[in-house]
Specification:
alpha/beta; Rossmann fold; GMP Synthetase, Chain A, domain 3; nine-stranded mixed β-sheet; 26 strands; CoA-ligase activity; peroxisome
Length: 521
């Protein structure tokens, strides 16, 4: 019997997310919308409403209407957020692009999303210009600061907004956002996110104990949309940090006292390594919602102990760009419970089942299989790409490509990515199982296990480990630790490589194929 989360609140069904966001800006106009640490400047909801409304009018004059795509390559700042809101109010579709890519990769993205306009930070202008050479259609470029041949952000702010109103003619088929997947298991795909998905975001993760949200998710992450939507609908304040390295974030937390933060575990683990961590006050943080990649229980314990003075404030979740938030912890869980190891209960509008990897038969509690989902937040599809029947089956179940199980209480547990499974002489081995054991050693900060190719055995589990500075931990000790906790087939036959860092993509996920290259050459 599939698990079902709570229904989507009836007052949200059929509503236009864009219209609701516009109304919230007007309703909360006197509240502080954003604090920019770099300038110490505050912006009210009214300030941002004025800017975004003028931008909407200008964009409509430039030909933007419902579902016309506008791409952006820009860092988090008040201009970027105001532009995105203005684009939404115009009816257009926002397509933030990963600016950490090469020009060729950006061009490949643009060829899929086919924007009419690109808004970019000036530091990314040369990349944009290179990316659109001989592109085949006209693209208007808008820059954050004035450039001789292009429109600038300030030139969007002089429109008459007295008669402006948000009109979305067809909310059911409106696409506010197109986001590219992280591409960890293949070529990035352009996901069309529906209006009805965005309107559900405010139902996730409580902000009751917090008035300020630390915003570190780049514009091209789905969590950025989640945080912006959640914060606006709840009348909260954004904090934009000057720096996003571990110590820079600690300085910002100490100074501006945010209460909520959506982040991956990476910056939190980096904080654990800082010798001067004790100098910073993190007591203002009431909730941290962790996403992007799976975080082990041992890492949760380490983060809570070292960064937050043993306060249990971490909320785990699970989902994807295609289906939204599948599960989440709606409240803090006692650290000594089995549920603390999981990724939460099923979210609003989601139905989930676990199926056997071979037969496709539905499995029960405690049985590992592939996670399959039906969701109110399911995407409108990919741009210029048909869905494969291996992803969406004939009964409408979306196959997540992840292995996991649920318990009798309805809590979901993540085991491993299906494509990361190794095989030793036909025996399937989940990297996460071995990584969990490695994390039991107090000197292990981060670990990743991949399969080193072997002519006879297939693959040998091989570990890449970041250990505590000044640690005397040896390869032999870790191999013995794993050997004592697993069957013979799962031993670290490929050994342990101690490294100073692990390769990660812009979403903070370890790029396993880079590690595979290093151990298979």
């Amino acid at each position: 019997m599939p698990l079902a989360g709570p229904p989507v609140p009836s007052h949200l069904v059929g509503q236009s997310f864009v219209k609701c966001a516009f109304d919230k800006l007007k309703e909360y106009r006197k509240s502080v919308f954003l604090i920019d640490e770099s300038t110490n400047k505050q912006y009210t909801y009214e300030n941002v409403l004025q800017m975004s409304t003028s931008i909407a009018v200008k964009l409509q004059k430039l030909g933007i209407r419902e579902n016309v795509v506008v791409s952006s390559l820009i860092d988090n700042n008040v201009e970027a957020i105001s532009f995105q809101l203005g684009l939404w109010f115009s009816g257009g579709t926002s397509n933030p692009v990963n600016h950490f890519q090469t020009s060729a990769e950006v061009r490949a993205n643009i060829m899929i999303s086919r924007p009419a306009i690109i808004f970019c930070g000036n530091q990314y202008l040369s990349m944009v210009e290179e990316s659109i050479k001989n592109i085949g259609w006209d693209i208007t470029i808008i820059t954050k600061h004035k450039e001789p041949q292009y429109l600038s952000f300030d030139e969007l702010l002089n429109e008459d907004v007295s008669k402006f109103s948000v009109t979305i003619d067809d909310p059911a088929n409106h696409i506010p956002v197109v986001l590219f997947t992280s591409g960890t298991t293949g070529v990035p795909k352009a996901v069309k996110i529906k209006d009805s998905t965005m309107i559900v975001f405010p139902t996730a993760a409580s902000l009751d104990k917090s008035t300020r949200t630390l915003l570190t998710s780049p514009m091209f992450w789905v969590s950025n949309c989640f945080v912006i939507t959640k914060t606006i609908f709840c009348n909260k304040t954004f904090i934009l940090p000057t720096q996003t390295d571990a110590e820079g974030l600690l300085k910002c937390i100490d100074k501006l006292k945010p209460g909520f933060w959506f982040t991956s575990s990476s910056p939190l683990l980096e904080m654990c390594l800082l010798p001067n961590l004790h100098e910073y006050d993190t007591s203002s943080i009431k909730y941290i919602f962790m996403g992007g990649s799976f975080t082990s229980t041992d890492h949760k314990h380490l983060i809570c102990k070292k960064v937050f003075n043993n306060r249990n404030i971490l909320l785990s979740g699970y989902g994807s760009t295609e289906v939204g938030i599948v599960s989440q912890n709606f409240k803090e869980l006692p650290v000594n419970t089995r549920m603390y190891e999981g990724v939460g209960q099923i979210s609003h509008g989601v139905t989930l089942k676990i199926v056997d990897l071979t037969s496709g038969k539905e499995l029960g509690p405690g049985e590992d299989g592939e996670i399959c989902v039906k969701s109110h937040c399911f995407m409108a599809g990919y741009m210029n790409k048909d869905l494969e029947n291996t992803e969406l089956d004939s009964e409408g179940w979306w196959h997540m490509g992840d292995i996991g199980h649920y318990d009798e209480s309805g809590y979901l547990y993540f085991t491993s990515r299906l494509k990361e499974i190794m095989k030793f002489r036909g025996v399937q081995i989940a990297p996460a199982e071995l990584e969990k054991i490695l994390y039991k050693h107090p000197d292990v900060i981060e670990a990743c296990v991949v399969g080193m190719q072997h002519d006879i055995d297939g693959e040998w589990p091989t570990a890449f480990v970041i250990k505590q500075s000044n640690s005397s931990l040896t390869e032999k000790e870790l191999c013995k630790l794993v050997e004592e906790n697993v069957a013979d087939s799962k031993r670290l036959r490929g050994g342990v490589h101690f490294v100073s860092s692990l390769p990660k993509n812009a979403v903070g996920k370890v790029v396993r194929k880079e590690l595979l290259k290093s151990c298979n050459t």
